[in-house]
Amino acid sequence: MNNIQNKRHRSFFFFGVGITSLIYIAWRIFFTIPFHFGLLSTIFGIALAAAEAIAVLEALSHYWNMSSSDVPEKPEIPDEMYPHVDILVATHSEEVDLLYKTLNGCLHLKYPDKSKIHIYLCDDTNRPEMRLLAEQMGVGYFGLSENLYAKAGNLNHALAETASPLVVTLDADMIPTSDMLLETVPYFFLPQMIKEDGAWRMRREDEIDPNEKIGFVQTPQSFYNADLFQFNLYAEKNVPNEQDYFFWRSTSAATAPTRRCTPAPTPSSPGKPWKRWGVSAPAPSPRTSPPAWIFRPPGTGLWPSTKWWPTVWPPKILRA
To answer: In this structure, what DSSP letter does residue 298 have?
Structure first.
């Protein structure tokens, strides 16, 4: 009931914002453009009004999508259905202490069968201290001495050496929460499962839509270290992180679920599980080796949405 009320309140708020924005743009167009102050003033006045109108239209489109977005319920799956997962931690020049935190977080991930979690430290500078860290922590190690494709090449090399059906990529300074896999992996079974009378069951063959596939499960990102303003104002607990809008409010929390309705979501930073068949398909990027687009270049981020029903967005912070 609270969710329905919140959705109504949000829709009412968006409607009010939309009406007042349209009134403002109408006022700008019909009453503020300086037609009587020369050609140059008129041109700049029209250009400024047009820029504001475009910004308002973009905001209204964003509000509309947010009011119609929906997050599917996470299915309940038996423990034996949880698949193997490869966790790839990419590093280039980061310190050992930083990587220790990340690997330690990976080792403490909860999973029905932890033997199905395979953690690899992917080092594209082939440093002895990183190899030693991997050995001490009991995780796999992939070292590269001549990497031509930066981070994407590093991860592509690791993909070629691993075989689990699910892949999670992490930056060197990214720590997963202990329940990250438990909160994301079940979503991959949405196309095969249905909820009836309060219980989940496998769909019959005639109930399965062959066109519905889950390529990745997008998760919002939050930073565990204070940003510039929080640090200098000694207000880490009182001032929100300036990156929250981009990673949580914008890219992940608002844009991702609304683009799923379009559908046109883009991958937003590492720290999410992918299906291996989704990351192994070659992408149309002439500057990097496939599938580099999933790890960095934003220009080809929309490409996967043409290949599968791309993403589910659980509204919960599962990495930092």
So the answer is: G
pLDDT score of 185: 93
Q: Which is nearest to 275 in space by CA: 196, 199, 190?
A: 190
CA-wise closest residue to 80 among 108, 114, 117, 112: 112
Point out the residues of the chain with pLDDT beneath 70.
1-6, 65-70, 243-270, 277-320
Render pLDDT for 228-278 as a digit per residue (tens, 0 to 9).
Answer: 877 788 887 787 777 665 555 544 444 444 445 455 555 556 677 888 765
**Which stretches within the chain are classed as H helix?**
2-31, 39-68, 96-107, 128-137, 150-161, 180-184, 228-232, 244, 256-261, 276-279
Dihedral of alpha carbons 219, 223, 227, 231, sign = positive
**What is the DSSP code (8-state) at residue 233?**
T
3-state class (DSSP) for residue 283: coil
* Residue 209, pLDDT score: 80
SS3 per residue for 80-146: HHCCCEEEEEEECCCCHHHHHHHHHHHHCCCCCCHHHEEEEEEECCCCHHHHHHHHHHCCEEEECCC
- Residue 103 · residue 119 · CB < 8 Å: yes
Sign of CA dihedral 104, 298, 66, 71: negative
Evaluate whether 308 touches 178 at the Cβ level (below 8 Å): no
Tell me the C-alpha distance between 38 and 23, whole Å.
Answer: 26
Crossing angle (nearest 10°) for helices 39-68 and 2-31:
170
Q: What are the distances in angstroms from CA 124 to CA 3, 121, 144?
A: 46, 10, 4
pLDDT score of 277? 66
Contact criterion met (CB below 8 Å) for 172 and 311: no
CA 235 to chain centre: 27
Superfamily assignment of 79-312 in CATH? Spore Coat Polysaccharide Biosynthesis Protein SpsA; Chain A (3.90.550.10)
Q: How far apart are CA 25 and CA 56, in angstroms?
A: 8
Residue 32 tokens, joined: 């503020």
Residue with the two structure tokens 């192994």:
280
